[in-house]
Design goal:
The protein is of the alpha+beta class. It is built from four helices and 18 strands. It has two domains: 108 residues, Proliferating Cell Nuclear Antigen; 117 residues, Proliferating Cell Nuclear Antigen, CATH 3.70.10.10. The strands form three sheets. A nine-stranded antiparallel β-sheet has the order 6-2-3-4-18-17-16-10-14. Strand 3 and strand 4 form a beta hairpin. The protein is elongated, with a radius of gyration of 19 Å.
């Protein structure tokens, strides 16, 4: 059983972060809320996203798993205004998710979850942590797309840098000092190279004012944590964790 009611913008943000990496996903539903753990098709990136029970106006569940076409679900949610309420209900008899938005009802067949893995998120001890608003690094990411398909993230005790180097001496270098960051803690100088496409998808799936907690090492994966479904009164009603493997080839 699953029947719930939630404000559209909270659900859109949760599904939007998941959709940044995968087209299909297994939604684990429990009395605590919704959870997705998924690896992108190329096995370069991983996501764990949680939407807590407190994000919902009403929430009636038994522990179930639902396989969702994320792209189709996102398309349905575009019909809802930011503050509009969305009612979700699982039709057990026909194995579909019924979505009600105002006078609109959309029924979506659920996917078979048997081939969808439940990956374990690895525990990493990364020596550097940067907390920065998503919008602060958006300009550097946008400029980098015309230069190369990979980007270097680095930290020192004084700054956080995004460097993108391409052919013919093309280069983008965004350096943010302590005054431009929410937090910077780097016990050693760290540098790792990553796919610009995947890093961009992760960062751009979140609002420009959302604080990203970026954990980094040298030639190690980068981990990005952020709050989801943030309410001015009650605070965060969910969270997302991204993990992106490094590119070791620095040619």
């Amino acid at each position: 059983m699953f029947k719930a009611r939630i404000k559209a913008d909270s659900l859109k943000e949760f599904i939007g972060t998941v959709g940044s990496l995968v087209d299909e996903a297994k939604i684990n539903v429990s009395e605590d809320g919704l959870q997705v753990k998924a690896v992108d098709p190329s096995h370069v990136a991983m996501i764990e996203a949680n939407l807590m029970k407190t994000a919902f106006d009403s929430f009636e569940v038994s522990d179930i798993q639902m396989g969702l076409d994320i792209d189709k679900f996102k398309s349905v949610l575009t019909m809802a205004g930011k503050d509009e309420m969305v009612i979700l209900e699982k039709d057990d008899e026909l194995n579909r998710l019924v979505v009600n938005i105002g006078n609109l009802t959309r029924a979506m067949p659920l996917l078979d979850t048997s081939g969808m893995p439940d990956p374990k998120v690895p525990s990493l001890d990364l020596p550097a942590k940067v907390s920065v608003a998503s919008g602060e690094i958006g300009q550097g990411i946008k400029a980098s797309k015309a230069v190369s398909d990979h980007i270097a993230l680095s930290t020192s005790k004084d700054n956080f840098r995004l460097v993108c180097e391409g052919d013919n001496q093309n280069r983008v270098d965004l350096s943010l000092g302590i005054d431009q960051l929410e937090k910077l803690s780097s016990s050693e100088d760290c540098t790792s190279l990553f796919s610009l496409e995947y890093f961009s998808l992760m960062v751009n799936s979140l609002p420009a004012d959302r604080i990203l907690h970026i954990m980094l090492g040298s030639d190690l994966p980068v981990k990005i944590d952020a709050d989801l479904a943030v309410d001015d009164v009650t605070g965060a009603q969910g969270n997302v964790k991204f993990l992106l493997a490094p590119r070791i080839d620095r040619d």
